[in-house]
Specification:
Protein name (chains A, B): 3-isopropylmalate dehydrogenase
CATH topology of the largest domain in chain A: Isopropylmalate Dehydrogenase
Shape of chain A: globular
Bound molecules: 3-isopropylmalic acid
Largest interface: A-B, 58 and 59 residues
Strand order of the largest sheet of chain A: 2-1-3-12-11-4-5-10-8-9
Number of domains of chain A: 2
Distance between the termini of chain A: 18 Å
Keywords (chains A, B): Oxidoreductase
Number of strands of chain A: 12
Organism (chains A, B): Pseudotamlana agarivorans
Helix content of chain A: 40-55%
CATH architecture of the largest domain in chain A: 3-Layer(aba) Sandwich
Oligomer: homodimer
EC number (chains A, B): 1.1.1.85
């Protein structure tokens, strides 16, 4: 098969880790007889510096015409302390999600047996954790009307959801649950919020279409607790944009494998794949960043966007082998021998 | 001194744990020469059953005329699975907060050395944790306009904050920080929300009035992570209503001492004190509920509402003694000898 993949390296360590994902994907393509054309495009602070905005139209056109988007990381310290600056990298992210229609953010949290000791949680709490959040990504309070009145003294943000928005996200949740343990948790704050009541009633009405799926409804504050207490009691969780932002990040640290966690953001036409870690500016150019989360994002891309599970598995096997053999960057080396970003990428590619 | 204390026992185990706090408070009053008049009043499901609403006017009048409110817990399973029922216990809670003007919810999370092994976190992560959240409690998306349009197909919730609301909460935060390690963290989502930008700019403008306080600004998703990773890196945190709901509950489980955590909700005229645990309906009437969180809430009441630190310390010392000697309810007994709710209350009172 032939694929056109938009390549958004972004800021900080983005370009370095993206390079390794390209290398590994190319090895996969070679092995399985596919042809990948990479289409690099500007985004984030790098795009602001070059053309004055974080998600330029030219980048959008490349993404919209691609079969999938592979994304590094964006964010730069020079924008960090001024959230009200006229142009910020985050705006590019939100614009990209909206314009590409990436309404479902898929955020798995799973454990690697060899990394359990890196978790802040006790081993018996974290063992066996394998959950996936589906976070709604193009609605809610992120995109509602916002502003000031009373001469700037009053600020407001409007949270809005339509039934159709809930349905398309929940549908993905039910479908995902069907491929896993058939357990779905709808996270909301239906005891306080009207949007949450819409979420809950919409999901309730969909239950009859998926009679095998066991659905539970939990308040966001209760989930924030149980994620720390018994993360392995969850399987698939669906939730709205802001709750998802908070809970997926909370979930990401419990496994001890944050540097390895991939993610996908899916729309009706296109999907984007990226590591969940940030741009880690202090490490830029030092060849120390862990490329595995980005490489595993490429695995998700093969599996989800191209429906090629074998190809994805080849990548996962290579990562597991490197972990088992200690061919890892310094963050995972426990003070022992470690390898550079590029060397780990080479090793993974050579094991495809 | 003479105190009039409104006593809202509520539902489930509320009455049982409240009884112990009354007993211990009376012992304190006797020892230090104070006179307490308790004013019982209905709230929660108990109030719905009796008079058809969860926060009756009669209860409000008693609270408004009191020197402080001591609260048990509310919530009953018969209301749990129907968040859109016309009358729910939670509505009483929100109405009470609003009518009493309880704008600042004070939620400490601290550790008891003897209970560290109950934490889901590894000991080295949790040791030394002693943080306090100040959660704004009468504004934000909880109280903004909410509803439906498009024949029910679209739901909305409006989040609104005024500068004055932020200032009065932040002022309490700065003042609290001055009595502790002089570190204050403002939690927001200023990279996305206009209300968060108002929070951040308001707190920034107040920094000059508290030159000794070191203020940091962190995004809510980052805090959700760091609370699990390095809870002991925080001291005082201030945040808006919804973020506070999620993060204080997350924080409550990390210490392993959730059954012991007290809280206060403060207004300009009146303050309310309650354990953070719920009404635990399954345990109702079994004399097994741990009364310590409610007893420690009474300690906070003496310290904060009545400005009587010695009296508060007498209660804390009694609790520490009971913990050290294993005079505890079964949740803390590790399978060893345990005592009933009432017996623990008696023991605490006898040690004042
Ligand atoms: C940078 C920010 C706007 C973004 C979000 O909140 O969605 C980030 O936290 C994320 O989760 O991808
Ligand atoms: C019951 C609910 C309305 C309430 C809230 O969200 O404020 C509770 O979770 C709390 O934190 O006291």
């Amino acid at each position: 098969m032939k694929f056109n993949i938009a390549l958004l390296a972004g800021d900080g360590i983005g370009p370095e880790v993206i390079d390794q994902a390209v290398k590994v994907s190319d090895a996969v393509a070679k092995k399985f007889g596919h042809e990948i054309t990479w289409q690099p495009a500007l985004t984030g602070a790098a795009a602001i510096d070059a053309v004055g905005e974080p998600y330029p139209d030219a980048t959008h056109d490349i993404c919209a015409a691609s079969d999938a988007v592979l994304f590094g990381a964006i964010g730069h310290p020079k924008y960090d302390n001024d959230p009200s600056a006229p142009v910020r990298p985050e705006q590019g992210l939100l614009k990209m999600r909206k314009k590409l229609g990436l309404f479902a953010n898929v955020r798995p949290t799973f454990t690697f047996p060899s990394l359990l000791d890196k978790s802040p949680l006790k081993q018996e709490r974290i063992e066996g954790t394998d959950l996936v959040f589906l976070r709604e990504l193009t609605g809610g309070i992120y995109f509602g009307e916002k502003g000031r009145r009373d001469g700037g003294e009053t600020a407001y943000d409007n949270c809005v959801y339509t039934r159709a928005e809930v349905q398309r996200l929940a549908k993905k949740g039910f479908e995902l649950a069907m491929t896993r343990s058939k357990k779905l948790c709808c996270v909301d704050k239906a005891n306080v919020l009207e949007t949450s009541r819409l979420w809950r009633e919409t999901v309730q009405a969909m239950e009859k279409d998926y009679p095998e799926v066991e659905v539970s409804y939990e308040f966001v504050d209760a989930v924030a607790m149980r994620l720390v207490q018994w993360p392995n009691s969850y399987d698939v969780l669906i939730t709205e944009n802001l709750f998802g932002d908070i809970l997926t990040d909370e979930a990401s640290v419990i496994s001890g494998s944050m540097g390895l966690m991939p993610s996908a953001s899916m729309g009706s036409d296109i999907a984007l794949f990226e590591p969940i870690h940030g741009s880690y500016p202090q490490a830029t150019g030092l060849n120390i960043a862990n490329p595995m989360a980005t490489v595993l994002s490429a695995a998700m891309m093969f599996e989800t966007a191209f429906n090629l599970p074998e190809e994805g598995k080849a990548i996962r096997d290579a990562v597991n082998k490197a972990l088992a053999e200690g061919f890892v960057t310094e963050d995972l080396a426990d003070g022992g021998k470690s390898y550079g970003t590029k060397e780990v990428g080479d090793y993974l590619a050579s094991n495809i």
